[in-house]
Design a protein that fits this description.
The protein is α/β, with parallel strands linked by helices. It is built from five helices and five strands. The protein has a single domain, classed as Flavodoxin domain (Rossmann fold), CATH 3.40.50.
Length: 187
């Protein structure tokens, strides 16, 4: 079993990456293989709705999308992480998810019944909308999203390490436990 996590943060090793690392600790303790992809430094163009993906499970735009999409298809579980930028997910992650969703849905719902969910970090506010925004992507793709002890959010910023949010860390650990439990039952 393998879980892929994609960080939509344009900053490497920031709070979003750290929070994904918390989930990975739990998954790896349970013997689940993990793979991490950071969108920092990558180019992901926005979907142009050209519909070329209706002819083959591939996006024709030339950038860093295809290897990430292939990793998404190959994973049993997917975690999407994003910091909150002005009340919503980053442009990098929404561009990736728009294109991945289009290609997957136009080619037999390639993410159908995969397990996963979002994790979100913000300095103060905006987590609920961002969480809902990402959650809608999981839901429209027919994925199975396990719950946790609270919403999958944590507080952090340039000046505040996300690991200081003890409740947020516990929430993400419980979310990862539920992913592991569910993947084990589905195997």
């Amino acid at each position: 079993m393998k879980v892929l996590a994609i960080s939509g943060s344009p900053r490497r090793d920031g709070n979003t990456d750290t929070l994904i690392g918390v989930a990975f600790e739990v998954l790896e303790e349970r013997g689940i293989e993990t793979e991490f992809v950071s969108l920092a430094g990558k180019t992901i163009k926005t979907c142009t709705a050209c519909m070329a993906c209706t002819r083959a499970p591939k996006c024709v735009l030339e950038d860093d999308f295809d290897p990430i999409f292939r990793a998404m298809i190959g994973a049993d579980g997917i975690i999407i992480g994003s910091p909150v930028y002005f009340g919503s997910a980053t442009g990098e992650i929404t561009a990736l998810l728009d294109r991945a969703g289009y290609v997957a849905r136009k080619n037999g719902n390639l993410f159908y019944r995969k397990v996963g969910g979002p994790v979100v970090v913000a300095r103060r506010i905006g987590q609920n909308f961002t969480l809902a925004q990402l959650l809608m992507w999981f839901m429209i793709n027919g994925m199975i999203v396990p719950g946790s002890t609270y919403w999958n959010i944590a507080f952090g910023s340039h000046d505040i390490d996300v690991l200081e949010d003890e409740e947020g860390v516990r929430t993400i650990r419980a979310f990862a436990e539920n992913i592991a439990w569910l993947l084990e039952r589905l195997a």
